[in-house]
Amino acid sequence: MKENHTPVEEEKLKERALLLMRYFWWDRLFEIGKQLRLPYFDKFLNYWEIEPYQAALEIAKNITDNELLDLIGEYPPKYGLELGGFQGNYYTVDEKGNVAIKSSWEEVRKNVQAVLEKWGEKAYGLLQALVNKGGRASYFDLIHEIEKVLGYEFAPSYLLPRLQPFKLVFKTGSNKYPDWTMPPEIIVVVKDELSKFKRPSIRKTIVRVTYTKVQQMIDDKVREIIEKRRYINQLFKSKFGIDLFKDNEKAIWDIKRPCSDEEEFNNRILALALLIDQLEVEELKKKIRGGYEAGSINILEAFLREYFPNYNIKIIRNFREITTLRSKKYPVHRDDERFINAMKYFGVTTFPPDWEVLWESVLEHYLESLNLLLETLGGE
Fold it and tell me: What are the residue boundaries of the structural domains of the chain, listed by start?
C-alpha cells in the first residue's frame, strides 16, 4: 500500500534523496538498496542499470534520519563532497561530510542577496539563466540564456568563478567540456530570492543600425567560412578517411553576430577559438608517425609537416595568433602584452582597439588559413 505523505514530508523525502545522491555513487546506492532488501533493487543485477534518483528516493523512503546518519557514518565520502557539501532546507553537510539535521536556506538567501548587491543585474542575469536551464549549463548555453533574461549580451567569464565562494555556482564536468552547476537543493530558494530583485529602471541600451554594410560583409565571410570548412572536411575524408573539423553550430552562430565593443569581442573570439580547437585530434594523432606536442594546433602542425612539408606556415600562424587574442586577455586570463603583439599582427596598433575593425581582420585571417589549407590539400 502506498504511503501518503504531507507536502512537507514529500519535500523532505526528495531532499533526502538528493543528499544520498550527493553522498554516494551509483554502486554504493545499489549496495545499500540490496542490503535494505528493497523491491526496486531486485529488478537489477548490476549497479549501472539503476536510475540514480529513483534508487536514492527508494532508500530515502525506507530510512529515518537516524538511519541516514548511521549510513553516512558507515560510508564516509572518500574525496569530500562536490558542490560545496549540501545546503538543504532539512539537511546541511559541509565539504568534509559532517551532517547536521538543520536548514541552510537562510545562509543561501544571504549569499544570493550579497552577490546581487555586489554585482547587480549581471549576477541576476547569470543566476536566473542557470535556474532557467535547470541548474546546469555549458558556458555558451549560459551566454544565450543570459541574453534572453537581460535583453542584452553578457559574457559571464569574470563572474562565474566569483560565485563559487558563495556556494551558488560550481564548475563541473571535464576540463575539456566544463559545465556550470547550481546545487539542485538550493534552486528553489535562489529562484525565490531572484523574484524579489528589482532591476534598475535605467537599463543598458544597445543602439545599433539594424543591418549595416559591415554586418553584410561579416555575414558573407562567415558563409564562406562554413563553405570552406565543409570542402576541407570532404577532401580530408577522401584522402585520409576522417574529417578535420568537428561541427559546432552554436560557435558558428556566435561568430556571425555583431561586434561593436570589448564584451562582444570577448564572446566572438571565444567562439572562433573553439572552432580552431575542435579538430578531430584523436584521429589525426593516429595518422602521425612522428612526434607531436599536445594541443589541437600543434597536432595539426605535426600532421601538415609530415604529409605536406611545403604547406604555407601562415595556416598555423593565423590560428596561433587568434588563440592568443583569446587566451592572453581578460576574461580568460589576466591581461598580457602578447595580446597587444597579436593585435598588431592583425593590423591594429592602437589600444584600446576599434573592436569591430579587429574582429573583421581576425575573421579575414581565419578565412585565409582555410583557403591555404584547401590549397594544400589539393582543392581550389
Answer: 7-79+93-100, 105-195, 213-376
The 8-class DSSP code of residue 85 comes to: S
pLDDT of 16 above 70: yes
Ramachandran sector of residue 144 (left: φ over 0; alpha: ψ -120 to 50; beta: rest): alpha
Given this model, what pLDDT does residue 294 score? 86
Residue 136 C-alpha cell reads as 546546469
- CA count, 13 A, side-chain hemisphere, 102: 8
Whether the predicted model's global pTM rises above the 0.70 cut:
no
Give residues with Cβ within 8 angstroms of 96, minimum separation 6: 80, 81
Q: Name residue 343's amino acid.
A: M
- Find the farthest-apart pair of alpha carbons in the chain and give their distance in angstroms, rounded: 77
Cell of 153: 549580451
Q: pLDDT at residue 209 above 60?
A: no
Place of cell 548587491: 117
- CATH of 105-195 given 1.10.1760.20, 3.40.309.10, 1.10.287.130, 1.10.10.10: 1.10.10.10
Q: Around Cβ 342, how many Cβ atoms within 10 Å? A: 23
* pLDDT tens figures, 78-91: 655 778 889 989 99
